[in-house]
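Write out the bound-state structure for NAP.
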Amino acid sequence: MKRVIIVGASSGIGKCLAEKYAYLKNKVGITGRRCELLNRLKLDQPNIVTACFDITESTSLRHLELLKEQIGGLDLLIISAGGGEVNEKYEWEKEDRMVQLNVNAFLEIAHWAFSLFMKQGHGQLAVISSIAANRGNSISPAYSAAKAFQTVYLEGLAIRAHKSLKPVYITTIEPGFVATKKHNGKVFWMVPVEKAAKQIIQAIENKKTKVYISKRWGLVAWFLKRIPYNMYRRL
Ligand SMILES: NC(=O)c1ccc[n+]([C@@H]2O[C@H](COP(=O)([O-])OP(=O)(O)OC[C@H]3O[C@@H](n4cnc5c(N)ncnc54)[C@H](OP(=O)(O)O)[C@@H]3O)[C@@H](O)[C@H]2O)c1
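---
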């Protein structure tokens, strides 16, 4: 039995992960802003505890501390809260919102969890970044840059954990497209949310440092990292 917190579990990948971890009899704390959706999950699974808050608000760590106490400690923290917006018109509000959510709020929670795990001498932090982390994106520049921040930051933490010789693990998850919402435009290799959640849990259990969802997106990442800018800008 693990004590697990999933940040961003009212819908999408986080919700599916919460259902699976709860089904496996773990003690699961879930968060999100939409309280009624969180409460619905709790009704189905008595080993779920909920905390309803906005992670971009200054009180978010207080909520997480309380949730941790309610589930009796913390072995695994998954950050699924995040997301992007298409920003064709390059509006400041959208760019700012994406950075507040995917950089500032992510950083605060990752710092809290990693510090706790190093202090207690064990634990695992898993974060849903994105394949978008691999190159700049002209229609959502802040999203790709924010996801690059997550991926690179987590690599730093993984090395730090490794050097400490403590059983503290970092898992960075980079999905391509997951069928959690309507995707527009050039969508290919879309993975059903159930399949994505299963692969994510397997990667977490195997203490993988980095995983692509699905595996074939690893090829895309490999390609993206290597093609020269003059070619990439034409894609
Ligand atoms: N779906 C894809 O194709 C895809 C691909 C690559 C990466 N990802 C990444 O995977 C993660 C999960 O995405 P998803 O597709 O499952 O999206 P989703 O269904 O929109 O889920 C996002 C979750 O984050 C929570 N959240 C968002 N903003 C929040 C805030 N300010 N405070 C607290 N909670 C917040 C939402 O809860 P509330 O709305 O209730 O607050 C929701 O539970 C994201 O980081 C996304 O960037 C997704």
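---
The mean pLDDT is 96.
The helical segments are 12-23, 35-44, 60-70, 92-120, 141-164, 193-205, 217-226, 229-232.
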